[in-house]
Amino acid sequence: MWIGTGDSPSGVGHGGLFHRATPDNEFVQIAPTPDQPSIPAVRGVFENPDGEFWVLTHRGIWVYRHGRLSKLDLGEGAAAEFLDTANIQEIAIGPEGNHWIATWSGLFRWDGGTGTLTHFRHNLLDPHSISSNELISLHFDHAGRLWIGSDARGLNLFRSEDKGFQRFFSPELGLETVSEIVETSTGDLWLASFSGLVRFDPATGT
Question: Is the pLDDT of residue 29 over 80?
Fold first, then answer.
């Protein structure tokens, strides 16, 4: 069992990572180094298919491997610099094996095979850009399509690199802040929002 903590209700500041794996079931704190006992406030822990654990914090991603905790390095460039300090909300792996990362600085796609990190951001002049840079939730549906929930700007569907995103925003229907996305056996999406529970039909967009 893994538990992440933060030292303030707002989810910022210092945090800690604890693991219960000892014979007496006590929690042991995992620290980067003895002189650096804390990490940024933890949002969650994501387990990769290879067994590595990525720790989602309000300032980037940390990785736990071989008994050590260190900052995840995804290369150089503007996208990597943004991700290094971003408030990480959720990670999902797509059908092609890419990591998709929802943050409060936009959406990132990490291709581990090529080492390519792509950054998708809201653009006021582009109606096919993602609706907001403050993103909370991710879900791949049965058809392999990626749905992204935002903070106050509704739901997004990633169509393709060329076509961009399709936006669904309807305050009167509760499509504003989408914090969780769950798919039913019939293909409907149930959305947890600040307005309550919303059932969304991808076929009709309502």
Answer: no
